[in-house]
Amino acid sequence: MLTTRQPIFRRFWHAVMPLDHLRAGPQPFTLLGEDIVLFLDGDGQPAALRDRCCHRTARLSTGRCDGGRLACGYHGWQYDRDGRVVKIPQYDADRAIPPDYRTPAYHCTARHSYAWVALEAPIADIPAIPEYGAPGWRTIFQFHEVWHTSPMRALENSFDNSHFSFVHRATFGVGDQPKPSKYELVDTPEGFYAETVIPAANPAAYQRVSGVADAVTTRHMRNAFFLPFSRRLDIEYPSGIRHIIINCFTPIDDGRMQLCQWLFRNDTEADCPAQLLIDFDDAITREDKDILEATDPDALVDTRRRGVEFSMDSDRPGMLIRKKLMELLARHGEREIHAGNRDQTAVIAIQPAA
Predict the structure, then answer these.
(1) Phi, psi of 349 (to 5 degrees)
(2) Percent of the chain with pLDDT strictly greater than 90
(3) Whether the bond into 98 is cis, omega within 30 of 0
(4) What pLDDT, in 10s, does the model give residues 172-191?
(5) Is the Cβ–Cβ distance between 286 and 292 less than 8 Å?
(6) How far is CA 76 from CA 42, 55, 282, in A?
(7) Which of 21, 154, 180, 231 could pair covalently with 249 via S-S, beta carbons 3.0-4.6 A apart?
(8) Please, which residues bridge with residue 220 across strands?
(9) Each residue of 45-64: pLDDT tens digit?
(10) Can you spell out the DSSP letters for 126-172?
């Protein structure tokens, strides 16, 4: 699937960048192939516009913020959060600015210390994170980085138990137990819920992460998928420590995505330092990144395309992700666009009932 060619993904919220980044001034980003610029408005709230001045097409991200407005670096034209030109320095103060002097604005909001953007009117809310700011939980912002793969590849990998003994043999994978545990899968309105228990290597260097002193422990994994490209992984160790990872796989273009990862823990800094937790998850994440960047980002979604990719029993969660995405496309009159039909339109003409 060529993600940027599916219009429906423009109607979901996507995590774009930490709010802290915007305090340094306007920031560029590419979302679903569209160049945008983010900045903080006069109320300190994030705003997103097309990264293009309507005067002479300069990138607005090369400009600066001026009293909650975004000023182009070329001629100083200023924009509000709705994309309207509200000041032209070369005009007299009482001269009216034509109402069509504007650049497209996008839906933008702050949630979980991130700026989120939907390119068109969103059809679903941002997934809730009940642990964020809750008593007894600490929040650790782990990753915000570009990967050369697609959200579909990252999603299915995050539910794939069969790669642990191979990709993660240097971290938590148990090399002599390659047969994956079976997920119990339950449909939800937003996607699905998957639960299983796996064995996990527990080297001495990381035993503060699990709170367990044994060389091999278990992970009770409660994994949930949220359309289109998010997941929540709640790992519980026998010690009672919970290690909850929230991932948003934000589509940049057809060959790149951005990994955003939050971590929530029900222990304290004294129990396990945040830097140790970052280092632990970083080692695991590098292993995933290396193998995923070796795959074709144009992942098959429509399984009726036989012979493109073959599957095995443990691929059930990945196949269910495909099913959910295909149902989403069908509900909105779209077909999968991939390298083999990239010249076709994604939108299917829906015939009225006779």
Answers:
(1) -70, 120
(2) 89
(3) no
(4) 877 677 787 889 999 999 99
(5) no
(6) 18, 10, 42
(7) 154
(8) 197, 236
(9) 999 999 999 999 999 999 99
(10) PPP-TTTT-TT-EEEEEEEEEESS-HHHHHHHHT-GGGHHHHTTTTT
